[in-house]
Prior knowledge:
Elements: H1 2-10, H2 24-35, H3 39-54, E1 64-69, E2 72-78, E3 83-87, H4 105-111, E4 115-120, H5 133-147, E5 153-157, H6 159-170, E6 175-179, H7 190-210, E7 212-213, H8 215-225, H9 227-235, H10 245-257, E8 263-264, H11 265-278, E9 287-288, E10 291-292, E11 302-307, E12 324-327, H12 333-336, H13 340-359
Parallel strand pairs: 3-4, 3-5, 5-6, 6-11, 11-12
Antiparallel strand pairs: 1-2, 2-4, 7-8, 9-10
Amino acid sequence: MVAAKDSALQHGVLPDVAPTVRPLPLFLILVQRVAERDPVLARDALRGLRIYADAPRIAAQERSIVARAGGAAIRDCGGRGPPVLLIPSLINPSRILDLAPGNSLAQFLVDAGHHVLIVDWGVGDVADAAMTIGDHVAQRLLPLMAALGTPAHLVGYCLGGTMATAAAMLAPARSLTQIAAPWHFSRYQDHARQAMQSLWAQQGAMVQRLGQLPMESLQSLFWAIDPDRTVRKFAALAHMRPDDPRIAAFAVMEDWANGGAPLTAAAAGELLHHFPQADPCGSGQWQVAGRRIDPAQLPVAAHHFTARNDHIAPAASASDAIETTPCPSGHVGMVAGSQARAGLWVPLASWLEKCDADAR
């Protein structure tokens, strides 16, 4: 078995061009481990890696900037009516909410009759090392909301939904929608919490010296939660025809997953250590701008779309105070997968329309 594993890495299967999968050395370690029990799957994964590296890329649509706050900005996707502000996580770029023509939550909402804008968190500077997650709300998100000149529907994805909850308590908003947003970090499965704590134990001192946590470190955390899935999704490419449109769709999704600016040291410490250990949100102790954030006290209508197969922000971690609707997919698939339109986009548009109708 070991010989088969080694030959897969030595006989021209590994791309001779640099793929954008990050971190590549860790990915190859995962493949090696799989090769010890399934050399065929390992070989397919390496072939898939080359297919991914050579796949055509779908260009992102350029969206104009209409407001700035520090390194963050709001990009305008167009449309009419009351603003709908999409708030991505601090982790990975905002593009997942406006991924590609025909696969864009933002464009779907525009076509459904909404004025859609997206927060772009930008690239942080080491001078921002002390900025916590709450500081990103107070010093970036709230000024951006104020720049719109009118309250917006806040639609936050992943950690962006957690942050949007704080923003909805601190500034005027039309409604709050969470999408796969963690709140009770104590409800994560033990192995996931241990993986977070382990990563911080290994890299926390380095992060504090650098002032930032690189995206590669976070990617290693996501892979650690389900390493076999990471290998299998690349192996699946080896069985597709070269002209299969799923290859280009995979490439743009994977480019997004491998992208992203570093987290500030303070935000990283919260996400990997303080939140999973002390659960300040779930225990009612999280404060932003001096105010305790309690979803039960939200001054606006709120709803949460969770994902049934979510390993990043499990449905169990959702706030009990906000009504939820489960989507039949995973953390990323619910936003940009094959079931996203029926599972999330259409119900979300209907929810926003109901909020506007109730406000009239």
